[in-house]
């Protein structure tokens, strides 16, 4: 990819719908609750956006430290920032 390609086009991620569905179901207090396919699709899209954003910020953190490889330390350093950021 060229250098002018936006970062969000360089980062690719996928989530299995079954995994997201089971994660959502695990938070329900009533086992009779149902999750629509539209809700699962929305949660998958949100998870993808979050992964792209976290990856981009971790990459920026590595660049600020003049590193060419993003490590777990870079991801951890942006987690607190992302957790406390207003939406």
From TrEMBL:
Keywords: DNA damage, DNA repair, DNA-binding, Nucleus. Gene3D superfamilies: 1.20.5.4980, 6.10.130.30. GO terms for biological process: DNA repair. GO terms for cellular component: nucleus. It is found in: Nucleus. Pfam families: CENP-X. It comes from the Eukaryota. InterPro entries: CENP-X, Histone-fold. Its main location: nucleus. One of its GO terms (molecular function) is DNA binding. CDD domains: HFD_CENP-X. Heterodimer with CENPX, sometimes called MHF; this interaction stabilizes both partners. MHF heterodimers can assemble to form tetrameric structures. MHF also coassemble with CENPT-CENPW heterodimers at centromeres to form the tetrameric CENP-T-W-S-X complex. Forms a discrete complex with FANCM and CENPX, called FANCM-MHF; this interaction, probably mediated by direct binding between CENPS and FANCM, leads to synergistic activation of double-stranded DNA binding and strongly stimulates FANCM-mediated DNA remodeling. Belongs to the CENP-X/MHF2 family. This is Centromere protein X. It comes from Hypothenemus hampei (Coffee berry borer).
């Amino acid at each position: 990819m060229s250098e002018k390609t936006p970062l969000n086009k360089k980062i690719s991620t996928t989530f299995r719908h079954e995994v997201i569905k089971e994660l959502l179901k695990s938070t329900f207090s009533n086992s009779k609750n149902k999750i629509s396919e539209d809700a699962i699709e929305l949660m998958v899209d949100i998870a993808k956006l979050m992964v792209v954003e976290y990856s981009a910020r971790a990459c920026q953190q590595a660049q600020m430290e003049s590193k060419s490889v993003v490590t777990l330390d870079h991801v951890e350093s942006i987690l607190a920032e992302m957790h406390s950021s207003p939406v």
